[in-house]
Every structure is written in C-alpha cells, then in structure tokens.
C-alpha cells in the first residue's frame, strides 16, 4: 500500500512545476550587474528596465549593482542563485568570455554555471584623452610617438581587470609594439575621473558613457575600436586608420544570463520579451544614437551560447598574446 501511494503521487509533481513556470513572473525580477552606477551597462539596463517590465506582466525590474573583481563578484552571486527566473545577470564578454582565461582561478564556470538568454548588442570603445591634461595628444600618432619614446611611462585607465577597456589597451599595446601601464579602476566613473584629473594618459572608454565628455569638450576621441567609423562619431577615425594598425578591432558584447538550469519556458519567455524591447524603434534608436551599440541580429539562446563559446576561445588567444593576467 505504501509503494502504491508513492507511485500515485509521482504524476502530481510535473503539473506543479509547470504551473510555477506558467505563472512566471509573479513578483519583481532582479537583474544583477557586475559594474557600478553610471557604467555603460548600468545606463543600458536602467533604460531597458521599464519596457522589459511591461513585457513581463508589469513586474518591476530591480537593478542590483555588485561591482568589483572584473564582474566576478556579481557572477559568483548569480551562479549560486536559484534558477527560478527572479535573479538574472546583465553580463558582458568580459564577465563571460575574457575572465575565463584572464583569471587563474574562478569560483564558478562561465559556461557550466549559467544559462545564456539573449545577446544585447556589440559594444565599441573610443580611445580618449583629456583635452586639458594631455593637450599634446592631438591624434593617435602623437600618442604612439610619446609611448615609444618613453617605454613604460604612459598609462591607461580601465573599468577593471578583465573588462573590455582593459583588454582593448592590452591588444593595442601588442599591435603597436609599445610598453604601457594598465591602471584598473572600479568601474567607468572612477576611470573617467582619473582621465579628467590627469592621473592617467588615456582611456579606451565605452562609447556610450564617453559621448558626454567628448561632446562637452572635456575629452578628445582619437579613434574608435570598430572596423568602420561610427555614425554617432563620424569624424573620429578607426584605430586601424588613425594609428596605422591595419585590421585592429576590439569590440565586446552585452548579454543576459540566468543561473544554470533555468527552465526552458522561462528562457524562451525572457528571450522573446528582450527581443521585443530591442526591436522597438524608439529603443533601438536610443541604443544606436546614444550608446553606439549596433542593433544585434535576432539570436536564439542557443545561438548566443555558441557566440559565447567562440569568444572564450578567441579572447583566450588575445589574453595569451598580451600577457595579461590577474591572480
């Protein structure tokens, strides 16, 4: 009798799980970011929060900034969260591709411990200098001449170890054959402040947060790291053009992730909701004209996972060639 009752009870479990997924979301969703307020990620996520909320039963989207260690603090938190769809991660190629080879040990696996949900666009950087503090750097040629004449003396800011702003500088040093010093900061605001104060010589800043200081005449954009010039900075040449470094490209991506084993119905619901936001004309125009982020193709979660795996390998080679590492 005991065995019969147990067997009769088994079918009830599956409908209960299905019911929980069908009612998702029924409470606020937290999206964790590994970088501070004012960073490019933070700007993007806070702008996306309202339309994404409307697409998800009107549930509030709470942005939780857990900065530090190149995004690894936030990554570890999300990796250990329940896969119920209420804790998500606004990740980057830095947190989910570069860090896999940049850090010798991580308390999580960037593939095994996460569920890829949606690709949110490719992110360009701009090589910027302070007009007041470094007036001598009028173009990339003058910057490179100074670096070659003073090996190890010039330094550049980044938004943290492993961030695209770090690896863009390391990739630049390898391509140009120069010896420069990396100075990591805890996020974009700190790095930008250091640039304006003259504490560092240059900064490969993400285009979105870089636009304000450029347009206000505080910083000069010497080049962008894309293959072609950007429509929002049409007069700024590419690094390949300005620095005479043919083929130089250094862009990364933003992406939405969940913890491992996130149920497929929730992944599909999130993917569809995010795609709807990205395809909204008003949002896509904001993305391009204020952040310099090209509207991404409509990738399925599986296609986004393939992009992540490909970039883990390609960034590992860049890390190896640059010699960059973090203990």
Topology, pairings included?
Blueprint: H1 2-9, H2 13-22, E1 29-33, H3 40-55, E2 61-65, H4 72-79, E3 87-92, H5 93-102, E4 114-123, E5 125-130, H6 140-149, E6 155-158, H7 164-176, E7 181-184, H8 188-197, E8 202-206, H9 207-215, E9 219-224, H10 239-242, E10 252-259, H11 264-279, H12 281-291, H13 301-322
Helix pairs in contact: 3-11, 5-13, 7-13
**Mean pLDDT value:** 91
For the biggest β-sheet, the strand order reads 2-1-3-10-4
If classified by CATH, what would the architecture of the largest domain be?
A: 3-Layer(aba) Sandwich
How many helices in DSSP terms? 13
Query: Unreliable segments (pLDDT under 50, ≥5 consecutive)?
Result: 1-19
* Named CATH topology of the largest domain: D-Maltodextrin-Binding Protein, domain 2
Strand residue content:
15-25%
Number of strands: 10
- Tally of structural domains: 2
What form results from the Cα inertia axes? globular
Quick one: CATH class of the largest domain? Alpha Beta
Helix content: 40-55%
Q: What composes the largest sheet?
A: 5 strands, mixed
Sequence of secondary-structure elements? HHEHEHEHEEHEHEHEHEHEHHH
Structural class assignment:
alpha/beta
First and last CA, distance: 59 Å
The CATH superfamily of the largest domain is known as: Bordetella uptake gene, domain 1
Rg over CA atoms, rounded to whole Å, is 22 Å
